[in-house]
Amino acid sequence: MITINTPIQTPEIILSTKSVNNFSSAQDKTILLLKKGIWIYFFLIIFEGALRKWIIPGLASPLLIVRDPIAFWLLFTAWNRGFLPSTPYLPLIFGIGIISIFTALIFGHGNFIVALFGARILLLNFPLIFVIGRVFNRNDLLKLGNYMLWMALPMLCLIALQFYSPQSAWVNRGVGGDMNGAGFSGAMGFYRPPGTFSFTTGTTTFFCIVNIFVLYFWFSAHKINKVLLISATIAVILAIPFSMSRGYFYQLSVSLVFFVLASLRKPQYLGKMLFAALFLAIALTLLSPTKFFIRITEPLLARFDNAAQTEGGVKGTLGNRYLGLMGQAVDQAFDKPFFGYGIGMGTNVGASLISGSQNFLISEEEWGRLIGECGAVLGLSIILIRVSLVIKIARASYNKMTKGDLLPWLLLSYGALILADGQWAQPTALGFSVLLGGLMLSAIKVYA
Fold it and tell me: Which residues, 6+ apart, have CB-to-CB distance to 220 below 8 Å?
């Protein structure tokens, strides 16, 4: 049995130093109860889009926040039973959330529903990261990774079917049963498939996380079924062309870089990695002339070509679209109203309630949205809190990696991005960010 002892040299992250072994019977029941709630939250991330598109499309609007009652219940139960972690992040983010509601009503858009919808990100979802980190242990992490590997091949089959089907097909039906389809613009007449999610970002995020566990399990193969691991590996690779996501391709590259850096410290890992790279190179050489390979890769390559013309290639995409817009948001922070335009206004729901359309009223980028909604002081404070948490997790993950534990380091390869700059206005992206943030906190605890 894996047990939790004490946090790794960063107690302000983990929120508690009490060992699970010392919990009473009542506390053990609370832990199991909270874990069940977290699992429900996880499965709702995966299948919320399916509910809104195919199963009960008539309830698409209320189902947008279907995870929020679970988040509220988890936070209330954790607080009521003494399991709400003690960390400065929680009062800070909670205070900013409450203040932002009042500033939105007094100085901003003035719509209470919009303000509440925006503030729920800070009041419900962000604190849940710490509850997951407190309650989950290494067994739970590996179990969740196992589940995601089981989901990978069926998800690949679904996005392949969506990729080849017209947008009018049932499998491509949009939120609320929209007959125009849920696919997003791609290339060569193909659309980026959303999988079971309401938007294509869900597909990208799902496979990014699956890839992390695939990398980890290949070098801890005794912890996973080999056939399952091979099928999930195939799914991760084939998801690159079928998703047509440049972000997914770039993120796979980042995770591989993290793994290479870890392998340099462990020669036995490096040897396995070189063997895997050689196997992949041979497989690509054999597949590249085939009609199947050409047909599924042409749309992705066309997307890269189109991006190279409009954004200036990889340098333009990463330098200008990503890092450049983050810097621009900070640089122009004090050009906005001091209290911003009001929390929630930068979300699609807020935009719809205020203007009647779902166009971005403030900014499509996360840092620009935060500053535009809450103003320079509160917006930059939220950004600093998120970045500070990432830095603390990164330090602890690096320490774990140097001691031979790759999982925290690999989780960081993607978690650092979506925790610091993930687009939390989008519910699926928010759910995955909360989940992965909690998994990272859980992974950096010390296990016996």
Answer: 406
8-29 burial, b for 16+ CB within 10 Å, e for fewer?
A: beeeebbbbeeebeeeeeeeee
At residue 11 the predicted structure's pLDDT band, cuts being 50, 70 and 90, is very low
Using alpha carbons, select from 312, 300, 151 the residue that is nearest to residue 232.
151
DSSP letters spanning 268-294: HHHHHHHHHHHHHHHHHHHHTTSHHHH
Interior CA angle at 278 toward 276 and 283, to 5°? 95
What is the residue-wise DSSP string for 78-125?
A: HHHTT-S---THHHHHHHHHHHHHHHHHHTS---HHHHHHHHHIIIII
Closest of 193, 206, 200, 208 to residue 158, by C-alpha: 193
pLDDT at 149 (0 to 100): 97
Going from the C-alpha of 108 to that of each of 105, 336, 345, 374, the distances in angstroms are: 6, 12, 9, 9
CA 269 to chain centre: 27
| Cα–Cα distance for residue pair 379/100, rounded to 1 Å | 10
Q: In terms of Cα–Cα distance, which of 174, 15, 151 is closest to 83?
A: 15
Strand pairing category for 190-192 and 445-447: unpaired
The partner residues of 187 in beta bridges, in order of sequence, read: 190
**Using an 8 Å Cβ cutoff, are 233 and 218 in contact?**
yes
Domain boundaries, the chain: 4-447
- The answer to whether 374 touches 345, Cβ cutoff 8 Å, is no
pTM of the model as a whole? 0.89
Residues near 227 by beta carbon (within 8 Å), at least 6 away in sequence: none
Contact criterion met (CB below 8 Å) for 294 and 304: no
Query: Residue 14 pLDDT > 90, yes or no?
Result: no
Alpha helices in 288-365 (DSSP H): 291-311, 313-314, 325-331, 348-355
